[in-house]
Amino acid sequence: MExxxxxxxxPLVGEVEIGGAKNAGLAILAAAIMTDETVTIDxxxxxxxxxxxxxxxxxxxxxxxxxxxxxxxxxxxLIEDLSIEYEFIKKIRASYYLIGALLGKYKKAQxxxxxxxxxxxRPIDQHLKGFKALGADVRISHGLIMAEAERLKGxxxxxxxxxxxxxxxxxxxxxxxxxxxxxxxxxxxPHVVDVANFLNSMGANIKGAGxxxxxxxxxTNLHKTEYSIIPxxxxxxxxxxxxxxxxxxVTVKNVIPKHLESITAKLLEIGCEVEEFDDAVRVVSxxxxxxxxxxxxPYPGFPTDMQPQIGVALALSEGTSxxxxxxxxNRFRYVDELTKMGASIKVEGNTAIIDGVSGYTGARISAPDxxxxxxxxxxxxxxxxxxxxxxxxxxxxxxxxxxxxLKSLGALMERAVTDKEIQKFRFKVG
Length: 430
Ligand code: EPZ
Description:
Bound molecules: ligand EPZ
Mean pLDDT: 96
Number of strands: 24
Number of helices: 15
Helix content: 25-40%
Radius of gyration: 22 Å
Shape: globular
């Protein structure tokens, strides 16, 4: 099993290129099957989640040609199977975006019901509510979601919760329904806007993405396009907090600073200096970190995908901080691991009460999920001594070349598979 072995204490210094947004890429790949013409997609991150979805798409007959590590050409005119197998949904729940895309294009889709995952139950009731509102007959049997419609007709849909997935899935199906669909209480994340822009580049008619009311006028077909994915605001935020916890000076490049505003605001609150440029942000952490409070919220609030990372920083800050996780019910799984490194955190329901400590000590820990795993790497980078992190496959689902990028900033770390490699690293770093 791959591990990271880290010798903490080095401030991270330098510049790092941020890749394409995983969560935009997943939805855009699904939306791209809605045309029979060829689509070119650039700035795709080379991460496991993206590559598993590409396999699922090839499994139903999508022709995919990889141009280079971050670009593909695809053609979906020969799709012969409208059913997505459980093996793919089990690996990447975002395969459920294929329901909205297949339903919109073929008026029929069958996808295995995605289970919960390690951050919460992850229901999809709002997705199904939207498909039904568009006129689809939606049934669940034998663990499969079957959606079918003679015709899809636009409707006025009120989401009961702000949900990125349902907003995107309904937007896709509605883009080829007859008439107008209005989605109220829509998610406003940058990747929702990116998917809408992508669909519009294929000839869809979507207005209002990025606000809580999205208006979609259905079209009868979508055409070819060439599109580049937006930068990943969570990857960027993770490196910005890496600078904070290692007393470093890091510039994240190829970002959209506006997408990072809530992250920047919190870094300023805990005592970092932040400088914004057109497509870069520089974070300098030279003073002792200060405590603050944070509540995760839908965009433009502080993102839930950054909650473990700020938790690691606050556990090193002077004073007591309160972190409230309002989106998912099980997103504090990093706390037990961080406690092994000396953190003092009490979790009560969806709130963590954090008493800052002066520093972490290295320990043997494991990554509980994607973002918690990335946050624990940040803890290892700031810890005194050696930290070994198991189950890093979770982290590599969503971060391309995470160790390589961190080492380019001065991190002392290696990917290891055997104890021998760990001993070699220990010997090398002394
Ligand atoms: C997306 O998940 C992201 N995943 C998540 O990122 C991210 O944490 C989340 O949005 C919130 O920003 C992808 O884009 C692939 P939601 P999604 O639907 O769409 C409830 C990562 O680390 N809900 O916005 O599944 C749900 O339980 C991942 O990259 C319903 O009740 O999130 C949650 O409490 C982790 N019914 C809230 O809404 C529904 O039908 C927000 O979920 C759908 C959601």
